[in-house]
Design goal:
The chain is an alpha+beta fold. Strands 4, 5, 6, 7, 8, 9, 12, 13, 14 and 15 form a ten-stranded mixed β-sheet that branches. Strands 1-3-2 form a three-stranded antiparallel β-sheet, with no helix packed on it. The protein contains seven helices and 15 strands. The chain has three domains: about 1-60, RNA-binding S4 domain (Structural Genomics Hypothetical 15.5 Kd Protein In mrcA-pckA Intergenic Region, Chain A), CATH 3.10.290.10; about 75-150, Pseudouridine synthase (2-Layer Sandwich), CATH 3.30.2350; about 165-309, 2-Layer Sandwich (Pseudouridine synthase). The protein has helices spanning about 15-20, 30-35, 80-85, 115-125, 150-160, 235-245, 295-309; strands spanning about 1-5, 40, 60, 90, 95-100, 130, 140-145, 165-175, 180-185, 190-195, 195-200, 210-220, 220-230, 275-280, 290.
Length: about 300
């Protein structure tokens, strides 16, 4: 029999949800059963599964035998686990910052058994909470944040919804950019799915989206841009770039397919988009974070090839 003391991370959480996290692989129906039978007690008394836990509560948890779940660590390919662990660049009590490689989906689904978050949870079965604070497309590399508590997740979402997080990407676009920095304020709307994929377009009836494009390196037929986004809409940079006539190089959905035919000769097999910098100050704690990620070898190699051509 285990006695667990509720700390501030779990205060306010429902008992059933707390037990789902604590008892890995146990179904919700079994949790309801052991709570109803009184095998789980809070401060020595019976409670209902929907009971809200408070800081300082003592939860008595009985031993529960379960079969290993489909998401158990031994089911996750070792190569994937090693890839994720190698991508972790910072970890503290509140969050994990990763430098996500291209080709790694953040979520499982659509025939993909494990995404980054499922594999990370399986590798850390005793972690009370792990959740994506935001997302990156599968073929986009770079900085990704994972919250280790619901409180941290809420704070990060507050920053992301407002102007509290400085998010900068590097994108190589087609065409010689004219002039300096340009602010793009174009609302976006999801068009539904085509061929099993989400599509986004500029639409006056969409939700607001703000991107600032700043040229960093000019080439005869391409421009390396730093893109600062004030909102985090799906495919925002890619759609904005395409709409203003400078699609992201290698973008298989919104790009210039004719111009992209020579990308493989440059060593590029995906879109040239990289989440390069995150800077923010955490509410309540006041802790400041600043993460930077250099261009990965495939993108740097493509850029070098274009410059030497």
């Amino acid at each position: 029999m285990r006695q667990l003391v509720i700390d501030e991370r779990h205060a306010g959480q429902r008992l059933d949800n707390f037990l789902l996290r604590e008892l890995k692989g146990v179904s919700r129906s079994l949790i309801y059963r052991i709570v109803r039978r009184g095998e789980v007690r809070v401060n020595g008394g019976r409670v209902k599964p929907m009971h809200r836990l408070e800081q300082g509560d003592t939860v008595r948890v009985p031993p529960v035998s379960v079969q290993p779940s489909i998401g158990a660590a031994e089911d996750v390919p070792e190569a994937l686990l090693a890839r994720i662990e190698a991508a972790i660049m910072h970890e503290d009590n509140d969050l994990i910052a990763l430098d996500k490689p291209a080709g790694l989906a953040v979520h499982g689904g659509s025939g993909l058994r494990f995404g980054l978050i499922e594999a990370l949870r399986a590798a850390r079965p005793h972690a009370p909470f792990l959740e994506l604070a935001h997302r990156l497309d599968r073929e986009t590399s770079g900085l990704l944040l994972i919250a280790k508590s619901r409180e941290c997740l809420t704070r990060l979402h507050t920053l992301l919804r407002g102007d509290g997080m400085d998010k900068r990407y590097l994108a190589l676009v087609h065409g010689a950019w004219q002039g300096g920095a340009r602010q793009v304020d174009l609302p976006l709307i999801r068009e539904g799915e085509r061929g099993g994929r989400r599509n986004v377009s500029v639409d006056d009836h969409g939700i607001e989206a703000h991107s600032e494009f700043k040229p960093m390196r000019r080439l005869p037929e391409h421009t390396l841009m730093e893109v600062r986004i004030g909102t985090g809409r799906t495919h925002q940079i890619r759609v904005h770039a395409a709409h203003i006539g400078h699609p992201v190089v290698g973008d298989a959905r919104y790009g210039d397919f004719g111009a992209d035919r020579g990308n493989r000769a440059l060593g590029l097999r995906r879109q040239f988009l990289h989440a390069a910098e995150l800077r923010f100050q955490m509410p309540v704690t006041g802790r400041r974070y600043h993460f930077k990620s250099d261009l990965p070898p495939d993108l740097q190699g493509c850029l070098d090839s274009l410059e030497s051509a």
